[in-house]
Write a structure and sequence with these properties.
The protein is an alpha+beta fold and 674 residues long. The protein contains 24 helices and 26 strands. The strands form seven sheets. Strands 14, 15, 16, 17, 18, 19 and 20 form a seven-stranded antiparallel beta sheet that branches. A five-stranded mixed beta sheet has the order 2-13-10-3-9. The structure holds 2-(butylsulfanyl)adenosine (IVH). 2-(butylsulfanyl)adenosine binds next to strand 3, strand 8 and strand 13.
């Protein structure tokens, strides 16, 4: 075996193992290995790729994000139109569908292929010589949008076709649906809620929103999955005779198909399969809104053909929507961990499709206005795909007299701080920050994190217990914990030694930097870099605290909105009180060294490979101290690439784009000048 063969074989093996685990994790939500093991395999592949960039495989999971953000999607005309399906809603309609098929296929036995009807977005995928070259949305059926970059980030979708048994077709157009599996959807919403970002009403919206992102990096961060349900073109022909066999044929190339699938000899069995799936629906990993019934034999399909825009050989058998009427008893505002206020309708409990629903999120004040829902209203509650109940409709005709319009509360229901809702934003927030009990745990976790005050152990292990003991009302209380040794010892697994370690760690954290302290306060929009820029620009804490909007806006890395958030933060008396107590507890720092010169002001640099005299973090800091922005990827805007040993694709790219490159020796000499 040549070296190339061995390396490629190793890469292919790692890609296959990673793809299998990705499927288990993202699609089935049943991880088969530990995250750390996955990371190890992933890094093994990355290392191999860095060493042999010339052999990097096109479908490597290390480069799911292929392209740059687009300004808009291009339109593509479908070679074979993407048509729609007729619907049936009950047994009688189903039998009528079967009768119409039978009449056109006299004396023929008809077998039915029964599939899940995925509730996502239809797309078409083109493979040329086994390589995924294009992904297009359904659009109006004739013309869709080119979403290739986003489609390439879908983890369970083969980007290169290979099969041990079958030759790869020269051209293959696969049709199917992009979805967000339920587990991924719930995780995404929980994460967004924790970050104070907008949540999605259902997996379909989340999938649609993700696919319509112009920046493929966003689509890549979303847990999307693709399920194949048909072949629009195949050259040379695949040679299968039935729908079910052609789907099976697709699976050998790694395409996922629905987790349930039936082949029925008669239409009664189709009805039974439909009923079975209707009860199993809550246990499926994806959202479905019915079943698709297809005549299984492909020749029979051809004979049946189409009636206007719908096939005669297939129909959708939809599940009945589950909805119920009830009344709104109250509307509460819940405060999330980052201070977002979410309205929740408290309902007179009602059974919807077998589940009792008593609380429904109304998402935000905009949704309340859109529905014009008021306390006392009669509403239709709808459970989309069995997961999230929602208020679908308000019945104003049943509105009790005098029911008042709902307004955003002026004060936080938890801490009474003013509620703010910046113009153009959908979400309202409590301005209480560090003071608000609802936001405390996150504020504490952030405050003690490594890049902030760096108090080891407190964030992950003890924060919740300390909150329960009521020892931490805000972050300033951390510095009085030493007065409560006895209570600390009552916490499970907290012995003398852990208490002492914690207290020592708290004491040591008092000596910090101005930038870390500013970052630790958890001001919205103020990440590590912004905090450093603020410290460098203003030099003292008082100067930052008293800075006006204009001065803040002029600071590098501080946008207009962040500037407003900084001002808001230092205007809230509760925050000032906490800050003063923190400073009184003895938090201190050396005055930041004013960067006398910022010779690399705003330039974009990239550090890649291994440097022998310093870590990449240190190299990054040195560059940042000179005013550079250090980026993770090379583009035409990159000013210079510092390439250590074993620099891989970034170095290649820099050379291709003609961007200056420094080796370690040159970099050290360059730094010496300053
Ligand atoms: S077959 C000629 N199979 O339903 C159309 N469609 O109402 C053949 N859909 O836009 C479509 N699951 O996106 C087919 N297993 C499945 C499906 C399915 C969901 C969607 C499809 C289409 C819509 C038609």
């Amino acid at each position: 075996m040549t070296q190339q063969n061995t390396v490629v074989a190793q890469m292919r093996q790692l890609i296959q193992i990673l793809a299998k685990h990705n499927h288990a994790y993202y699609v089935m939500d049943q991880p088969t290995i530990e995250d750390s093991e996955y990371d190890q395999l992933f890094h093994q592949l990355k290392a191999l790729e860095a060493q042999y960039p010339e052999f990097v495989q096109p479908d490597t999971p290390t480069k799911t994000v292929g392209g740059k953000p687009l300004s808009k999607f291009a339109n593509v005309t479908h070679a074979v139109p993407m048509l729609s399906l007729g619907n049936v809603f009950n047994e009688e309609d189903l039998y009528a569908f079967a009768r119409r098929a039978e009449e056109r296929l006299p004396n023929q036995k008809i077998e039915y292929d029964v599939e899940l009807k995925f509730d996502g977005l239809a797309i078409s995928l083109w493979y040329e010589h086994g390589v995924l070259v294009r992904g297009v949305t359904r659009g109006d059926g004739e013309t869709g949008e080119d979403i290739t970059q986003n489609v390439k980030t879908i983890r369970n979708l083969p980007k290169v076709l290979s099969s041990e048994k079958t030759a790869v077709p020269e051209l293959l157009e696969v049709r199917g649906e992009v979805l967000m599996p339920k587990a991924g959807f719930e995780k995404l919403n929980a994460e967004n809620e924790a970050k104070g970002e907008k949540t999605f009403a259902n997996p379909r919206n989340a999938a649609a929103g993700s696919l319509r992102q112009l920046d493929p990096a966003i689509a890549a961060s979303r847990p999307l999955a693709f399920y194949a349900y048909g072949i629009a073109q195949c050259e040379p022909p695949h040679g299968q005779n039935t729908m079910s066999a052609s789907l099976e044929w697709l699976t050998q190339f790694g395409f996922a198909v629905g987790e349930r699938h039936f082949i029925c000899d008669n239409i009664q069995d189709v009805q039974a399969a439909y009923e079975q799936i209707n009860t199993e629906r809550p246990n499926l990993s994806v959202e479905i809104d019915g079943m698709v019934i297809k005549v299984n034999d492909l020749k029979q399909q051809q004979t049946l053909g189409f009636l206007s825009r719908e096939p005669r050989w297939a129909t959708a058998y939809k599940f009945p929507a589950v909805a119920a009427l009830t009344t709104v008893e109250n509307i509460d505002w819940q405060v999330g961990r980052t201070g977002t206020l979410t309205p929740v309708a408290r309902l007179n409990p009602v059974a919807v499709g077998g589940v009792t629903v008593s609380n429904v999120t109304l998402h935000n004040i905009g949704e309340i206005h859109r529905l014009d829902v008021r306390i006392g209203d009669t509403v239709s509650v709808y459970r989309s795909g069995d997961v999230i109940p929602k208020v679908e409709k308000v019945w104003p005709e049943f509105r009790p007299e005098g029911a008042a319009e709902v307004h955003l509360p002026e004060c936080c229901p938890v801490c009474s701080s003013p509620v703010v809702m910046p113009e153009g934003e959908a979400l309202a927030r409590c301005s209480g920050g560090l003071y608000c009990a609802a936001q405390r745990i996150e504020a504490i976790r952030h405050f003690v994190s490594r890049k902030a005050m760096d108090i080891e152990g407190l964030g992950d292990r003890w924060a919740e217990s300390l909150l329960h003991l009521d020892l931490l009302k805000d972050v300033a209380d951390i510095y009085s914990l030493h007065e409560h040794r006895d209570q600390l010892l009552t916490i499970e697994k907290m012995g003398e030694k852990s208490v002492q370690n914690l207290i020592d760690s708290i004491e040591n954290s008092k000596k910090t930097t101005l930038a870390a302290f500013i970052y630790a306060l958890g001001i919205r929009g103020v990440g590590e870099t912004t905090a450093r820029m603020l410290a460098n620009t203003f030099q003292t804490f008082d100067a930052i605290r008293n800075a006006d909007l204009d001065a803040l806006k002029k600071t590098p890395d501080v946008g207009d909105i962040t500037a407003e958030w900084i001002v808001d933060f230092f205007q809230a008396p509760h925050n000032l009180e906490v800050v003063d107590r923190l400073l009184a507890a003895g938090i201190h720092w050396d005055a930041p060294v004013a960067p006398t010169r910022q010779p690399l002001n705003g330039e974009s640099w990239v550090v890649t490979g291994t440097l022998s005299t310093m870590g990449r973090d240190e190299a990054t800091q040195q560059l940042q101290a000179l005013g550079a922005r250090v980026s993770g990827s090379v583009s035409s805007k990159t000013k210079c690439v510092v390439a250590g040993e074993k620099a891989g694709s970034k170095l290649d790219k820099a050379e291709k784009l003609g961007i200056p490159v420094m080796n370690e020796q040159q970099f050290l000499e360059f730094l010496q000048q300053y």
